[in-house]
Amino acid sequence: MIESEKLENKNLIEKSVTHLQATGFEHIKADIEGYETPKSYTRKGHDSKITPDIVAIKNGRKYFFDISLKSKKPRLLKTKWLFLDTISRMKSDRFRIITTKGHYKFTEDMLEDINLANKEPIKL
Fold first, then answer.
1. How far is Cα 23 from Cα 40, in angstroms, rounded to an integer?
2. Cβ atoms within 10 A of the Cβ of 71, count?
3. Which of 57, 64, 70, 56 is nearest to 9 (CA)?
4. What is the DSSP string of 15-80?
5. Which sign, positive or negative, has the C-alpha torsion 32, 46, 67, 54?
6. pTM for this one?
7. Which residues pair with 115 in a beta bridge?
8. What's the burial of 57, exposed, middle or buried (CB within 10 Å: 0-12/13-18/19+)?
9. 62 vs 71: CA distance, rounded Å
């Protein structure tokens, strides 16, 4: 999710972290209070930073997670997803998307628009 939406959706990030802990993820970093903040990436030529919502490790492999909610700025969200997917592939890591009821269709359409339809979102 984009930066402006993180404050109003903290409970969804917390729910996602709980789900990831239950499925065996460790060393979880999340963009909420009580957790270490994941590393931010600065876009060249822009002042904006891209920060994954959650970063965790499972079986020695790093996973980047982004939470998908209907957004008023879908272009910004697409840019973030493409960037995180590229970074994860460069380092042999994994990029996954977490979504919730009411946002499945939006998420699938967004993934199709940016040719990431092979990504299966985690549905909470």
1. 25
2. 17
3. 70
4. HHHHHHHHTT-EEEEESSTTSPPPPPEEPTTSS-EE--SEEEEETTEEEEEEEE---S-HHHHHHH
5. negative
6. 0.90
7. none
8. middle
9. 27
Going by pLDDT thresholds of 50, 70 and 90, the confidence category of residue 49 is confident
User: 113: which 2 tokens?
Assistant: 């628009």
117: helix, strand or coil: coil
pLDDT tens for each residue of 3-25: 777 777 888 999 999 999 999 99
Which one-letter amino acid corresponds to residue 11? Answer: N
CA distance 68 to 79: 13
Mean pLDDT estimate for the chain: 90
Distances (CA, A) of 74 to 34, 47, 80: 29, 19, 10
Q: Which of 60, 59, 37, 53 is nearest to 96 (CA)?
A: 53
Q: Which domains does the chain have, with CATH numbers?
A: 3-68+75-102+114-123 (3.40.1350)
From 113, 19, 121, select the one nearest 67 (Cα to Cα).
121
